[in-house]
Amino acid sequence: SFSLATYLAYYRIPNTLAEKVVLPVSEGLSVIDNIIPVDEFGFWQLYYYGQPATTSAQTFPIVSFVDVVDNNVDLSIFEDKIVLVGLINNTGLLDQYLAPSSISGNLMAGVEIQANSIESMIQNQFPRDLSPLWQGIIIIVVAILASISYTLPRWYFKLGLLVMFLIMGFLIYSYIFSISFVMISPFDLLLATALPFLFSLGIDIT
After folding, report:
1. Which residues contact 44 (CB under 8 A, 6 or more apart)?
2. 54-91 pLDDT, tens per residue?
3. Of the candidates 142, 160, 147, 139, the residue with the CA atom closest to the CA atom of residue 202
4. pLDDT digits (tens, 9 = 90+) for 105-140
5. Do 119 and 67 meet the contact criterion of CB atoms below 8 Å apart?
6. Sequence-ordered strand ranges (E) for the chain
7. Torsion sign across C-alpha atoms 165, 168, 171, 173
8. Is the dihedral of CA 14, 20, 21, 27 positive or negative?
9. How far apart are CA 19 and CA 138, in angstroms?
10. Chain-wide mean pLDDT for the chain?
C-alpha cells in the first residue's frame, strides 16, 4: 500500500481517485496503465534491480539524513525524484529482509525494498510466471529430448550429457528471464532432465 500510494503521488493522482485507477483484474492488479502480476498467494512479484546496498555499491542513490539536516548536501539532487526516508545501515536494524537478488546473503533494508517496488511500477517491469500450458509443453519436450539423448551412450557419457543439459538449461533460463521477465520453474526442468537420466541408468544397471 505504501508503494502504491507513493506511485500515485508521483503521478499527482489524489487519494479520492485511487479506487478508479487501482483495480483488481484476472492477472493481478491494474494500476493506471500497468498490470502488476501476483503469485498464487496474492503477493505481487516485484523486480529487484540490484543487491542490498553496501558502502561500495548502491542500486539507488543514498544520502545521509544527517548531511541533509546539516546542509552539507546540494538539495537540487532531490528535484523531480521520489525520495524515501528510512534506515538503511543502522546497527541492530530489524527492518531488513532476505531479497532474491542477494548473492552474498546480505539482508536488504525495508526502505530499499520499497524503492525496488516503486521502480518496478515506474518501469513497468515485473517477473511473470509462464502459463501452465507452455510450462507443460516445455517440460514434455525437454523430457523427450533428454530420454532420446540418454538412449545409446554409456553411463559416464550420460552423466556428461546431464551436466551439459543443466548448464544449457540455466543459461537459456537466464537469457529468457533477462529479456522478457518470464519465469520458468527451474525445479520442473531439473526433474525433466534428471529423471530420464536415472531411468536410463537403471535400465543399464539391470
Report:
1. 28, 29, 36, 37, 38, 117, 126
2. 888 888 999 988 899 998 988 888 988 899 988 887 65
3. 147
4. 888 988 999 999 999 998 888 888 777 788 888 888
5. no
6. 22-24, 28-31, 34-37, 96-98, 107-109, 128-129, 182-183
7. negative
8. positive
9. 39
10. 85
Q: What is d(CA 4, CA 28) in angstroms, rounded to the nearest whole number?
A: 14
| The one-letter amino acid at 193 | T
Half-sphere exposure of 193 (CA within 13 A, CB side): 20
What's phi and psi for 72, nearest 5 deg? -100, 10
Give φ, ψ of 30 to 5 degrees.
-95, 125
HSE toward the beta carbon, residue 72, CA cutoff 13 A: 7
Taking alpha carbons only, the member of 82, 120, 83 closest to residue 101 is 120
Return the bridge partners of 175, or none. none
53 contacts 60 by C-beta, under 8 angstroms: yes
pLDDT over threshold 90, residue 192: no
